Every structure is written in structure tokens, then in C-alpha cells.
Amino acid sequence: MATKPAPTDSFTEAAAAHAKVRATIDTLRAEYDATEAEIDSTAAELDRQLGLRLPPDEMKRAVVEILKANAQRFENTLRAAICDFILHKQGGQTIPAAVIGKPMTYADIESIIAGEYGNYEYTNLLKANKTPHVFDAPLFLYFGEAIAARIERVMDGIGPADMGYGKIGEGDIGCGLAERRALIVKLQTRLNELHARRADLAAKLAALGYQVPYKPQRQG
């Protein structure tokens, strides 16, 4: 006669399984908490770096970068203005509607050169039409290298106190522009990685029946 297998102890098995789940939850929760703490510290450092000033010499370099950026934006506007000019879109009400949007003809060009066509006698092309005043962007576009060199010479005589550095502490000044940009990218990349890890851990915990409190992503 065959021997019957011993009855399984369902409670003992369930208790063991439950203990294993709890241990897994505790491990995941510890990793989640550590990730959350690193997110807070990384975001705080990102905020700090964003709020720091540049060293004085780097501040001067940033001024030139701002002028270059404005000139590039103006160049984009100028390109559009040149197209509008060729397409008769800036000729005023004296231009027949039928020709607006089409390239000017040779006859149009000669008439404009002679000052005999519509409102073209006084063009605004170097102001790119949309620019209300001829300010530093168009000048920098046309004479950028000369202007940058001259401004740099002017700024040679500007000291830290002239730029307000006497009103802030050394702790308010961080690294230079290029190094700062690289650091900001590094911090932001790390923050994105931590957010992804936190989301993965939260999903695993949820699958085991444990819900973590919702926290929005911090971007600095």
C-alpha cells in the first residue's frame, strides 16, 4: 500500500512567503529612501550652482556672449526681413496687392535704386523692420569682432567692485562659465537618472502592495 504524502503546512508556507515579501519591501524601501535623499541633495546643489555668480573675469566674458547671442537672434530676424523686402512685403500701401509675396522684378529693382518706387526710398532693412531702434545687436552683427575687442578693452578697467562683487561674499561666487555649464549638465543628468530609479523602485513597491508617497520631480 502506497504511503500518502504528509499534508502541507499552508500557514507556515504563507508566513514564510509573507516574510520574504516584507524583507523585499524593506530592501526596496531602503533603496528608495536613499535615492530620494540623493535627489534632494543633487537638486539642492543644482539650485545652489544656478544661484552662484561667475568670477569677475568670467562675468566680463558672459557680457560678450550675451551680445553675440543677441546678434545671432537679430541675424535671424534680418534674414526674414531681407526675404520680406525681396517679396515686396515692406513696401507700404503703394505696392499692388498682386505683386506682394512675389520676388521683385528687374524693373522694380531699378526703380527702387532710383528712389521712384513706393516707400522704398527710405528703407529700414538694417533695422530688420521689426526692430524699433538700431541697438547693439545689429551693430554687433556687422562689426562683432571689432566691437568685442573694444568692449574687452573697456572692461579691462572695470574692477570687481564696479560690478557689485563687494556686496556679495566669496561663497556666492562659483566656477567659470564653461565649467559651470558642464557642471549644470552633469547635475541635471544625474537628477534625471535618480528620478528614473525612484520611479522604478516605486513601481516595484506598488507591485508588492506598498505605495510610496507621491513626490514631483525636482529639476533645480
Concise description?
The chain is mainly alpha-helical and 220 residues long. The chain contains five helices and no strands.
Report how far apart the termini are. 75 Å
Alpha-beta classification = mainly alpha
Overall pLDDT score: 84
Order of helix and strand elements from N to C terminus: HHHHH
CA-based shape: elongated
Which consecutive residue ranges, at least 5 long each, have pLDDT under 50? none
User: Mind telling me the C-alpha Rg?
Assistant: 33 Å
- What share of the residues lie within helices? 55-70%
> Major sheet, described briefly?
none
**H/I helix tally:** 5
Please state roughly what percent of the residues sit in beta strands, choosing from under 5%, 5-15%, 15-25%, 25-35%, 35-45% or over 45%.
Answer: under 5%
**What is the total tally of β strands?**
0
Notes on the structure:
- The protein is mostly helical.
- Helix content is 60%, strand content 0%.
- It is built from five helices and no strands.
- The protein is elongated, with a radius of gyration of 33 Å.
- The mean pLDDT is 84.
Write the layout of secondary structure elements.
Layout: H1 10-51, H2 56-86, H3 106-113, H4 136-156, H5 177-207
Helix pairs in contact: 1-5, 2-4
